[in-house]
Structures are given as C-alpha cells and as structure tokens.
Amino acid sequence: MTASLIDLYTWSTPNGRKISIALEELGLPYTVHAVALKTGAQKHPEFLKINPNGRIPAIVDRGNKDFVVFESGAILIYLAEKAGRLLPRDADGRSRVLQWLMWQMGGLGPMHGQANVFVRYFPQKIPSVIERYQTETRRLLGVMNGHLEHNEYLAGDYSIADIACWPWVGQVEWAELSLEGLPHLQRWFEAIGRRPAVTRGAAVPVLQAQPDLATGQAIVGGTAAP
Predict the structure, then answer these.
(1) Where are the beta strands (DSSP E) in 71-173?
(2) Which of 82, 30, 95, 94 minimizes the C-alpha distance to 58?
(3) What are phi and psi of 9, to 5 degrees?
(4) CATH no. for 91-195
(5) Coil/strand/helix, residue 217
C-alpha cells in the first residue's frame, strides 16, 4: 500500500467532504482522523494545536515537513497545486476557478449553513430569519443554475470550484429547500455525484477513520490510498 502523505482531520459536513473528495480525485494517499463535532472534539487541545480556530477540516502534509493547512478553500488550493490538477495554471483559468471558490466560501456556504442552523438546530423557530437565509440560499442556487445553463462546469473544466460547491448543493433538503425548477444545477449535481472519486470521498469519515480525537475509539480503522 502507498504510504499515507496527508493526515485529514474531518467530519461529515459539506466543508469536510470537500477535502476527502479532492483527495480522492487527486489520488493523494491520506489517513482519516474523525473529529466528532457532536462531542466537541474540535475544541480538544490536541486538535487546537493543528487548527487554533477549532474547526474542521484541516490537514497535515507529512510529505512536506508536517505542514499544516486549515480552512477548506485554502486546503483545496494547496492540494490542487501539490498534485498539479483541478486548478488551471494559466492566469485566466486559475482566476475563474478561484472566483467560484471564493463565491462558495463567502456566499453559498455561509448562507446555506445559517439556513441549516435556523431550520434544524436553533432552539427557537424565528420565521423571518429562516426565510431570510432560505431565500438567499435559493437565490445563490439560482445563480449556479443560470451559469450552468451555458457551462458544463462552474469554471471551464471540472475543478476544485465544483468540488467546493457540490457538497453544499447536496444539503438542500436539510435546509428544507429543493432543486425543483433548477434543471441545469440538477444536471450538474447528478453528473458530479456519479464520479467514483466523489462517491468515495463523500462517504468519509464514516467508512474510513483513525481513532476519534475525543473518544480515542476508531469508528472504522483504515487508510485511504489509491
């Protein structure tokens, strides 16, 4: 088996799935460390040494002097540059990908995330707040749909921009939304979901994990490697 180069600290969230999908697509061997958010493992001192912000995902590149990268967008860029794939090298192509990546990080992710929180987790149901975040999330999904009417992927060829957005689109029902009336977005979502690497990456850390940081117990032992 190929030696693992990347330690991936993650959990089953859209931001976490971005990285495991990218690692699978890029064929970079990695070890999964499950950071169980429900137990507060992201605030464990051991993890805070890796990411002082106490959020997943984060990686440690053992092949690069244990270099640490946190923030999902920064990790995607780092991995794409490391592998030389999924991020164009020409200036215009690179800019197109980064524009959509930043769009996801600054818009789709935060708005969709807040919709999830106020629909599912917040102790009080505040209709005006729920409507605000659902409406904005739906608007952003519409932006994608309009763009994808004339484009197969978000930024030219399949890239880290698509990987960044796909897990969030997959959570529309969690925010009590749907892809109804968004045929181009639905086509894109289904096409990407059929990619074998996406299927494998979306299942992490449920199928592959080293001992959990909070409990010390393995969910499922294993190392992902091509």
Answers:
(1) none
(2) 30
(3) -105, 120
(4) 1.20.1050.10
(5) coil
Domain ranges of the chain: 6-85+200-224, 91-195
Burial class (CB in 10 A: 0-12, 13-18, 19+), 12: middle
For residue 223, the model assigns a pLDDT of 36
What is the per-residue pLDDT across 79-127, written as a single tens digit (0 to 9) for each?
Answer: 999 999 999 999 999 999 999 999 999 999 999 999 999 999 999 999 9
CATH class as words, domain 6-85+200-224: alpha beta
Backbone angles phi, psi at 211, to 5 degrees: -50, 135
As a whole number of angstroms, the distance between CA 50 and CA 128 comes to 38
Contact between 208 and 32 under an 8 Å Cβ cutoff? The reply is: yes
Looking at residue 193, its amino acid is G
Q: 3-state DSSP helix/strand/coil percent for the chain, to nearest 5? A: 55, 10, 35
d(CA 45, CA 52): 9
- 28: Cβ–Cβ under 8 A, 6 or more apart, which residues? 5, 6, 79, 82, 83, 226
Dihedral sign, Cα of residue 153, residue 159, residue 164, residue 166: positive
What six digits make up the tokens of 75? 């990790």
